[in-house]
C-alpha cells in the first residue's frame, strides 16, 4: 500500500512537470519573451510637400536598417523612439509610416520619382507599421510594429515611407527619429 501512495505522488509530480513544460513551450512559441533593446542610428525623413504627394505614400531611397538583420527565430519587432517635426510653416500633426524591405520590383501602383518612390496608399496597407504623432520642434514618443517591419529587419534592409494623415507638410521639412531602439520577441 505504501508503494501505491508513493507511486501516485510521483505520477502527479511528473504530470505537473510535463504541464509546466508544456505551458513554457506554449508561452515561448507565442512570442512573449522580449529581447533586450538594441540601439539604432538616428533617421531623418525628408518630407515632400503634402500637396505634391497627393495622399500617396512617399518612400525615401534611404536604407534605414542597412545591415541590421533580425534572426529568423525572433518576431514581433517593435521600434521605439522620439519623433521631432522640423517644421518650416507646415501644419503636419500626424503621419502614417510604412516600410518596405526593397524598392525594387514594386507593384504597378508605385512610381519611381528619382530620390523617392510614390505609391498609392490603398495598395500599401500591408506595409503600414504605425503612425507618428507630431508637434513642431518637440520630440514625441512613438512605437512602430507590424509584419512589414519584421520582414524588413530579417532582410537587413528597411525603406521608410510616410503619408500625411493630419495637417500638411511643406517642401524641405523633416521628421527626425531619435533615440531609436529595436526590440523583438522569441
Please, could you describe this protein's structure?
This protein is an alpha+beta fold and 186 residues long. It has three helices and eleven strands. It has helices at residues 2-29, 50-53, 147-155; strands spanning 38-39, 43-46, 57-63, 75-86, 94-100, 110-113, 116-119, 128-133, 139-145, 159-166, 174-185. It has a six-stranded antiparallel beta sheet with strand order 6-7-3-10-5-8. Strands 1, 2, 4, 9 and 11 form a five-stranded antiparallel beta sheet that branches. Residues 1-31 have low confidence and may be disordered.
Gross morphology is: globular
Overall pLDDT metric: 82
Percentage of residues in DSSP E strands:
35-45%
Number-wise, the strands total 11
Structural class: alpha+beta
| Largest sheet data | 6 strands, antiparallel
Order of SSEs: HEEHEEEEEEEHEE
Radius of gyration: 23 Å
> Kindly, what is the distance between the CA atoms of the first and last residues, rounded to a whole number of angstroms?
47 Å
In which order are the strands of the major sheet placed?
A: 6-7-3-10-5-8
Which descriptors would you attach to this protein?
6-stranded antiparallel beta sheet; 11 strands; 5-stranded antiparallel beta sheet; 22% helix
Provide a brief overview of the structure.
This protein has 186 residues and is of the alpha+beta class. 22% of the residues lie in helices and 39% in strands. A hairpin with a 2-residue loop joins strand 6 and strand 7.
Any chance you could write out the topology, listing elements then pairs?
Elements: H1 2-29, E1 38-39, E2 43-46, H2 50-53, E3 57-63, E4 75-86, E5 94-100, E6 110-113, E7 116-119, E8 128-133, E9 139-145, H3 147-155, E10 159-166, E11 174-185
Antiparallel strand pairs: 1-11, 2-11, 3-7, 3-10, 4-9, 4-11, 5-8, 5-10, 6-7
Amino acid at each position: 500500500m505504501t508503494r501505491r501512495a508513493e507511486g501516485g505522488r510521483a505520477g502527479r509530480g511528473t504530470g505537473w512537470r510535463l504541464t509546466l513544460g508544456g505551458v513554457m513551450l506554449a508561452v515561448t512559441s507565442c512570442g512573449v519573451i522580449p529581447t533586450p533593446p538594441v540601439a539604432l542610428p538616428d533617421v531623418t525623413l525628408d518630407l515632400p510637400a503634402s500637396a505634391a504627394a497627393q495622399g500617396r505614400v512617399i518612400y525615401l531611397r534611404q536604407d534605414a536598417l542597412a545591415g541590421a538583420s533580425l534572426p529568423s527565430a525572433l518576431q514581433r519587432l517593435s521600434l521605439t523612439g522620439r519623433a521631432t517635426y522640423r517644421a518650416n510653416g507646415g501644419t503636419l500633426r500626424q503621419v502614417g509610416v510604412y516600410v518596405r524591405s526593397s524598392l525594387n520590383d514594386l507593384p504597378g501602383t508605385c512610381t519611381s520619382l528619382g530620390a523617392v518612390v510614390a505609391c498609392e496608399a490603398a495598395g500599401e496597407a500591408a506595409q503600414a507599421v504605425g503612425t507618428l504623432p507630431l508637434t513642431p520642434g518637440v520630440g514625441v514618443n512613438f512605437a512602430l510594429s507590424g509584419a512589414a517591419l519584421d520582414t524588413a529587419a530579417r532582410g537587413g534592409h528597411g525603406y521608410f515611407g510616410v503619408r500625411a494623415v493630419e495637417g500638411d507638410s511643406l517642401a524641405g521639412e523633416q521628421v527626425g527619429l531619435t533615440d531609436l531602439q529595436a526590440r523583438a520577441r522569441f
